[in-house]
Amino acid sequence: MEKQTTNNQPKQGEVFTRPEIVDYMLETIQHVRQQNDWSYLRVLEPSCGHGAFVFPLIDALIDEVHNWEAAFLNTFLRACDVSWKNILFVREIVGKKLEGAGCPSTRKEELLDAWFICDDFLTHDFDLTFDIVVGNPPYIRFDDLSKTKQQEYSRIFTSFSNRCDIYIPFFEKALSLLSSTGILCFICTNRFTKNRYGKKIRQIISDNYHVAIYINMEHAQPFLEKVSAYPAIFVIDKRIGLPTLATTVADTSTTTLEHISLNNSENQFSSFETWYHNGNVWTCTDACEQIELQRIESIYPLLEESASGTKIGIGVASGADDVFLDAQRNFDIEADRLMPLVLSEDIKQGSIIWRQHYILNPYESSGKSSIINLEEYPKTAAYFKSHAERLKSRYCAKDNPNEWFRTIDRINYNVFRSAKILLPDIQPGGNVALDEKGEYYPHHNVYWITSSSWNLKALCVILRSTFVTNQIRRVSVQLRGGNVRYQAQNLRNIHIPSWSSLSDEDVRALEALYTETDLARIDSGVMSILSQVAHLQPRKLTQGTFF
C-alpha cells in the first residue's frame, strides 16, 4: 500500500512507488515467467493504494484483449484495499480506460465489480490462487494496530510475532495464494531479512519457496516521497532448488535500472546456487562474500561459544527514564540506591567517558535481583511515591502491581560488579570499551559481554577489528549514515577464534594493541593471529573482506 505523510507521520502505511520502478518490476515478472503477454493470468494486488501497479496492468491487458466478453477476464485481477476512497479512485480511472478501449458499459461494471475489493487483505477469503502477486504492502508498526487486530493477526499468521510490522503477514498470505507456477513480486522494507521479527517469515520462505531475485535498495529512493524505508525488491516463486539472483544498488536511476535489467546480458546480479536456509539471516548479495562467510563459520566458533563462561546481554530499560535516571546525584535518596550508569553517548572511540549519570536501583544488591523493601529506604520510598501515578501506568507495573516501582528489566548485580566489554547499539563499527573494574551498569541501548575465560583486553581488540566489523555489517540492518546495530542477536552471529586456539604470545600481542587507536595496526595484528589459527596467508583487511 502506498503512503501519504503529514509531518513525517505515515497514514495507513502508504508509500507511493515511482512509475519507473513499477515498470521495472512488471518487466522482471515477465522475464521470470519467460513470456510477455498478460492474457489468461490471474493477478493480485493486495494493497492497491492509488493504482501504481493496477494502471499499467490494465494498460497491458487492453493491448492484448480482442473480446471483452471473454470469461477469463473475470479473474484477471483482484485489487484489494482497506480504503473505499482508494478503491473508488482507482476504479473510476480503470473504468475510463475500459470505456476508451471499447468495453461495453454493462461488461465494464461486471469487471470492475469482480476486480476491486474493499476489505482487509489479511482477513479476506479469496476463492482463487494467483499467477502473479505484485505490489507494495503497507508498512504499519505493531503498536499502531488495534489490540483486536494484533490478536486476530497473531491467531491467523505464524509469521506475525515479536511485534513485527504488518508487511510480514502480507508476505505470508500472498505467498499462500500463489498458484503452482505463481510469482510474488513485492517492493517493501528489507528489515525482515536480518532482524529478529523476520525469523519466522524467512523460515517460511526457505522451507516452502524459492527466492528468485533479491535487489537490495536500502540506501536508494524508489518512492515518490523521500522516506527512510530501507527498501528492496523481492521476487519469490515455488521453483525450489533453482539459483537466486541478488544484487545491491546505491540508487534507482534509469542507468542503474538498465544495469539490473534481466534483459541485459551483462546485468550486475550475483548468482547463488543456494540461498539462505533454515530462516537464517540474509547476510549479503554477493556470492563470493557468502562463500567467505561460510568459510569463517567453518573455521571459527560463535562468540558465545569461543570460551566457557562467555555471555552477551543488554543494559537496563527502566520504562521511565525521566524518573529513574539521575544526573550528578541530584536525587535526595539513600546513596546506595544510586548505581553509576553508562549511556551509549559515554562510549567514545573505545573509551568510557562517564558523564555521571546514575540509575535509581530498586533491587537488592545481593545478586538475587529481588525487589527492595521500601520501608527500609524512606527517602527512596518518598521519591517513588511522588511519581507513583507515572510509574503505575507502565505495563510492567500493571503486570506486577506489588512491584510498581521496578524497572522494566531487572538489574543484574553480578553483571554490574563484573569486568565487561560495553558496546553502543547504533554505531559505525569498532566502538568497543572495557569496564575493567566493574564500575558501571549499562543503559538499555548498550550491550555487554562478560567472560570467565577470555582476556577481555584481547577480546576487545578482536571486536574492534575490521574482521568483526565486516561480520556485523553482514548480519545487521544498515542504517542511514553508515551505522549498524550491535544488538545481541547480531553479536551472537559473529565468529571469532576460540580462546583455546590462542597461544600466550598471541594473547600478549593482542593485549599490547588494547590502547592502539590506529585501525590499520589493529587489523594487522588481528589478521596475523587469524591467519595462524586458520592456516591462511595473511592479507590486508578492508571493508567487505574477511580473509
What does this structure look like?
The longest helix has 17 residues. The two termini are 43 Å apart. This protein has three domains: 282 residues, Rossmann fold, CATH 3.40.50; 108 residues, no CATH class; 140 residues, no CATH class. The protein is of the alpha/beta class and 547 residues long. The strands form six sheets. It has a nine-stranded mixed beta sheet, sandwiched between helices. A four-stranded antiparallel beta sheet has the order 12-22-18-20, covered by helices on one side. Strands 13-17-14-21 form a four-stranded mixed beta sheet. The N terminus is likely disordered. It is globular, with a radius of gyration of 28 Å. 33% of the residues lie in helices and 18% in strands.
List keywords for this structure.
3 domains; Rossmann fold; alpha/beta; 19 helices
Write the layout of secondary structure elements.
Elements: E1 4-6, E2 9-11, H1 19-33, E3 43-45, H2 54-64, E4 77-81, H3 84-100, H4 105-115, E5 116-118, E6 130-135, H5 147-156, H6 167-176, E7 178-189, H7 199-208, E8 210-216, E9 231-237, E10 244-248, H8 254-259, E11 270-272, H9 287-299, E12 311-314, H10 321-324, E13 325-327, E14 338-342, E15 347-348, E16 351-352, E17 357-360, H11 378-386, H12 388-392, H13 395-399, H14 413-417, E18 420-424, E19 426-427, E20 433-435, E21 441-442, E22 446-450, H15 456-464, H16 466-475, E23 484-485, H17 488-491, H18 504-512, H19 519-534
Parallel strand pairs: 3-4, 3-6, 4-5, 6-7, 8-10, 14-21
Antiparallel strand pairs: 1-2, 7-9, 8-9, 10-11, 12-22, 13-17, 14-17, 15-16, 18-20, 18-22, 19-23
